[in-house]
Amino acid sequence: MRVVLVRRYCGFGYGGAERYFATVAGRLIRRGMDVVFVGERCDPLPGLKHLRIRMPFRGSIARNLAFFYMVPLKIRAEKLNDAIIYTGARIKEFHVFCTNDPLHKPWLYFRYGNPEAALLSLLPRHQTILYLEKRMFTAKNAHFALPSALLKRQLETFYGFSIMPDKVHVIHPGVDFYEFHPPENDRRADQAVRNILFVGNNSYNKGVNRLLSALDLISSRPFTCTLVGIKPGDLKIPFRLRDRVKIAGYVRKPGDLYRRAHVVVIPSLYETFSNVCLESMASGTPVIISSQAGACEIVEHGYEGLHLYEPSNEAELAVRILEILEMDSKTWKTMSLAAAEKAKKFSLDAHVRKLIALFEEIFVR
């Protein structure tokens, strides 16, 4: 079977969605599949062919429209019509759309609220993205691989149309247990000063500034904090936290940082899932996760981690962090073991097997 993967960028030097496509490409190639990546940039990966899309435009509206139409033309020009097209970007023709990125209408709502979201949706850039999304979700014979049941409900709630049930497939992401696993001889439970880990960019949605504000509220308590994915100089650290917050920048292999942390905080306003959540749990590290993140549905509150019911509420976040900081060693250890055990249900191999089963079902049709 031949599979075409579509995304703007692909590789381990980018964000979570780009790393995901690089990982899936490698796993499919290992299973003997002919895999082609179509996009603007791609890290060299063994066995992966890259068909580059050269963008002639700079503005976001033109780039979004150009990518939507240029990719199918490129695929046809390379005579790849017999391939299964698995896309993580908005394009005109495809077989399976992987919705790793936030859907635009829910994102506007969770970011701005009403009526601001409704007004902003009238601007040309947002109108363009919403138009392309509607084209994709109403495409004939298209399938949709959703990372969470939460996203399935949001499709119906925010877009006002329902997709045929046999076209929607909830396929939870998987985690690489070779890279993400609990430490040997784990002694974190007995450490006096606990470490808080944040993995993400410094966008408003991800909530790193809300995390810092919450930590400032409890600055009298002992803790350290590590920020991964944030560039030094891009963030203003509150004065009382300067000696306790470390900005690690981009880390290509963050497994050791997960294994040194006592909690990973995910205060996003909106996430279709959150691979960070799975990586943390697989490392035996409890999470504090936003109720608006799809991965919240795999975390039982009080067992594998804690839910953050109002991700914009810094006071609630501070309380949740305090629960972890003040947790006795036995309770923390129990939560750590429960998180690692739950993560075992979400292996990367299981995820890829489900994808291949979907591809084969479509191929037979």
TrEMBL record:
Cited InterPro entries: Glyco_trans_4-like_N
Glycosyltransferase subfamily 4-like N-terminal domain ranges (all copies): 14-176
Record-linked SUPFAM superfamilies: UDP-Glycosyltransferase/glycogen phosphorylase
GO MF terms held by the record: glycosyltransferase activity
Gene Ontology biological process: lipopolysaccharide biosynthetic process
The entry's keywords: Transferase
Matches recorded under Gene3D superfamilies: Glycogen Phosphorylase B
Name of the featured protein: Glycosyltransferase involved in cell wall bisynthesis
